[in-house]
Here is the input.
Amino acid sequence: MYSFFDTHTHLDYLQQATGEPLAQLMQNARAAGVQKILIVAVLQRDFKTIEKMTALYPEHLYYGLGLHPLYIKEHQAQDLDLLEQALATHSPNCTAVAEIGLERAVPELLTDELWRKQCDFFETQLYFAKKYDLPVNMHSRKSHDQLFSFLKRIEVPKRGVVHGFAGSYDQAKRFVELGYSIGVGGTITYERANKTRQTIAKLPLDALLLETDSPDMPVFGFQGQPNRPERVQQVFKVLCELRHEAPEVIAETIWQNSLSKFVWKKHRTFVQGY
Here is the structure.
């Protein structure tokens, strides 16, 4: 069985949605070869919950702290202060600033005031990633051009990933040329997502990461159900159909890429301890 790293989940929200104990969620994931999972925050009030969940499975769970653009109305300026405090004292298992980004698919979040607030929060969090030497895990809907302009202007040394990518090859290629990875999720399991499928087929393999966005972004055949980390298998299966490389090469390349992106910090701390 191949080893998988689900590089973008809201496992805390999946647990709330299903009522299943964390131990059961972890057992289901590991039975499908999902050895490691990154949990990303949405709101400031999520931080403690995610930290506690991760502490229970420190070899399998990692987390990112950040403020999601979809909830820009709720975020307060003090949330940025609390985020920085959490990043300044984070555990080795905090390996990303996430989930951050820009949202242009919801009209009510595009008033002058809210768009400016989105941009201000995104920029501040990019600087946090730079300051604390962490990669970013980013949300981008109908905002690839705007996101790219921020990333080009503000260099984040550890780069990161544009998660759940949906868009053209040219858009993805620009991110990859800047050193960012592309998150491959349930979108590619839908044949109608032809543009995104063609994009993922053409990009360099070592630029790709696998993810589920659990409990969101359901894969084909499971619409209406909470998405789960174990369904990364379905994403991988479709990815293999779209790519020319052998499945074992795809699995190993993405596994190693995922580790280098989101587990490097813990490994570095471990090595330094010797």
Notes: The beta strands are 4-9, 34-40, 61-65, 94-103, 136-141, 160-162, 181-184, 208-210. Confidence is low (pLDDT under 50) at residues 266-274.
